[in-house]
Amino acid sequence: MTDMDVRPTDTARADATTGETPGDATAGAAARGEDARCEAGLLGVLADLVGRGLAGAEPGRDQALAVLRSGDDDLLDVLAAAGRLRRHHFGRRVKLNFLVNLKSGLCPEDCSYCSQRLGSQAGILRYSWLRPQEAAASAGAGIAGGARRVCLVASGRGPTDRDVDRVADTIGAIKQAHPEVEVCACLGLLSDGQADRLRSAGADAYNHNLNTSGENYADICSTHTYDDRVRTVDEARGAGLSPCSGIIAGMGESDEDLVDVAFALRALRPDSIPVNFLMPFEGTPLAGEWNLDPRRCLRILAMVRFVNPAAEVRLAGGREIHLGSMQALALSVANSIFLGDYLTSEGQQGHQDLKMIEEAGYTVEGLADAEAAADTARSVTLRHRGVGTELPPNA
Ligand code: SF4
């Protein structure tokens, strides 16, 4: 399969109805024939990707690239195919995750995408470790909103043993109040024995993202390596923690980089894969890097799903600003989202997340339908602006 086989179907759309000459008609017929082959090519690729996904067989790299390079006219076909894998493994459930930023900013590392990095001028909140009860109270708010996993995140290269003790106390406080809820820790690079201690404290999972391809990694960070990250994910798995590792798209990477990192994740076998879309914070080196559009984001999600069919694909940071009104469509591929706010930026209102899930026909994992629907009571807002008022119209 080459890229030529799957280029957008609207190329060279010559047609007799456009008034072409006989010579043009021959060329038009050839073009139509080529279009048909192209369309069949992508549909064939998608059918094969679904078949491989259901059978647990590895897809081809060229197939993954074809998904990324498919045209807007093919987008619904791509989402329908990826959606079959999503529904096979997760039905119509959506898992809600809630972030608690235990320690914000003040990081000595230089990850170029991060608002908490060394030298960041972003106007984010900066604070040192939350006390365990404060963190547990924040987690409780997320759980009350429907979250079934709490992600405890701290800025920094990696925790000291004392930091691990603090986090262990926080995990204990959350588990005591909400034993049914999963706790994931995300504390950076782990030293020997720290994964075991987190597991013993009751952590269920550990997150450490690969973020981008190994080849691209040195371009986004100079203070630690891609291999450091892979090692930490392996250590977490070795300690019995559910590995969580994902990507950030939109940092100027190539299609090949995205495919590389998707396959690297397949090799790493994380249970969950957060797919972040770069939030270009002012005051960071990647400010101004607006490289994504909603259709591109959807194709990236679909590609990740095809390469990792059984993984929890989590629609993560940047979903609101990059997907906009297409967020609900992304649920046909992703089976997990973050509820509410992110580490240093605000997300959609939690009740709007629930409403979006319900309106798109999905159910919140672990939450009774009645509860999920409770906040979505409808009402009509009467107009009090525009004509007939002193206020300007809504335009
Ligand atoms: S190590 Fe974590 S907190 Fe620090 S700059 Fe990198 S991503 Fe940000």
UniProtKB/TrEMBL annotation:
GO MF, any single term: biotin synthase activity
Region: Disordered, residue numbers: 1-28
Subunit structure: Homodimer.
UniProt family annotation: Belongs to the radical SAM superfamily. Biotin synthase family.
Known EC number: 2.8.1.6
Xref: PROSITE patterns: RADICAL_SAM
UniProt protein name: Biotin synthase
